[in-house]
Design a protein that fits this description.
- It is a single chain.
- The chain has one domain: phage-related protein like fold (Alpha-Beta Complex).
- It is built from six helices and twelve strands.
- β7, α6 and β8 form a beta-alpha-beta unit.
């Protein structure tokens, strides 16, 4: 005989599986560019502190040569709570023994909704970076980042210009070489392949630019130039950067994920629970997470609006 108690016991663990399955059904792009940190504090603080600068010459027997680390700008990641719930009444189950099973679609959508929140929240950091201030008070993608707290009239520029193209990417490399410096003014070497991050509208262009052949190569043409950019970047397409999802179909980004300036800080990763509320007479299901999403340094990358 099917009873409320047996239905709840039967379907509750299945709902958790439904939610987790859809949460993982599509690979998250944010994991390729963001450092994920587990931390139990409400506020996770990153203090930007340089190493020491270039060595200086010294005379024999002379004193000195000391240097204090250079201060940057701190970033506080404050945890937020996110959740989604669904419920099924006792009466619905009393009158239809398959009522809980019919909620399978809702359970699956909860998993997708969790993934959507994370992807949207992390992509928004890029999409809004042309108009939202970072820790140093300037837009994330800007041409006047203070070199450090003491050199506020000496600027660094991580705002690229132009549409994504072979020539503009070469120009961007020159800008990165000139502007990509530590707080103490030491050039930052690009030691790993950067990510060339683009919306769906630009993935074809990005793939051609970094292919083995020149970016203008097409079947049946005479273009056979060697492509100096071949293999230098990892092209990554992100749906959440598109204009339809609050971003832009022309903006493009060069990201250095190994520097770990882009972070997702977790107190509680997405998890799903269920219970029976005898007072209100509902079977209840809940997905929940505690997280913070952000960037703590403009040196996370360089970007162009594509204009």
């Amino acid at each position: 005989m099917i009873t409320r108690a047996s239905l709840s016991a039967l379907y509750t663990p299945i709902y958790d599986e439904f939610m987790l399955a859809t949460y993982d059904e599509v690979s998250q792009v944010n994991t390729k560019v963001f450092k994920h940190v587990d931390d139990s504090t409400y506020q996770y603080i990153v203090d930007d502190l340089s190493g020491l600068g270039r060595w200086v010459s010294a005379d024999e027997g002379a004193s000195g040569g000391y240097e204090d680390p250079t201060l940057g700008y701190s970033k506080t990641y404050t945890q937020g709570k996110y959740w989604k719930k669904l419920q099924v009444s006792f009466e619905a189950v009393d009158w239809d023994e398959y009522a809980l099973l019919k909620k399978e679609g809702d359970a699956r959508e909860m998993g997708r909704g969790a993934r959507d929140l994370i992807e949207y929240s992390t992509a928004t950091i890029f999409n809004d970076g042309f108009a939202t201030a970072g820790p140093d008070g300037q837009y994330l993608w800007d041409n006047d980042h203070p070199a450090n707290r003491d050199e506020t009239t000496n600027y660094r520029d991580n705002l690229l210009s132009g549409a994504l193209s072979h020539d503009n990417l070469e120009t961007a490399e020159k800008q990165i070489a000139d502007e990509f410096m530590t707080l103490a003014g030491i050039p930052i070497a690009v030691t790993q392949k950067p990510i060339l991050l683009v919306p769906p509208a630009l993935i074809g262009t990005a793939m051609r630019i970094v292919s083995d052949r020149a970016s203008d190569e097409r079947p049946g043409t005479t273009n056979r130039d060697i492509n100096v950019l071949a293999g230098k970047y990892i092209p990554v397409e992100w749906l959440y950067l598109s204009a339809a999802n609050g971003g832009s179909d022309t903006a493009w980004y060069i990201i250095f994920p190994w520097l770990e300036h882009l972070k997702v800080v977790w107190t509680a990763r997405p998890h799903f629970t269920s219970w029976v509320d005898e007072d209100s007479e509902y079977y209840k299901f809940k997905g929940r997470m505690l997280a913070a999403f952000g960037v703590d340094n403009w040196r996370a990358g360089f970007a162009s609006t594509g204009a």
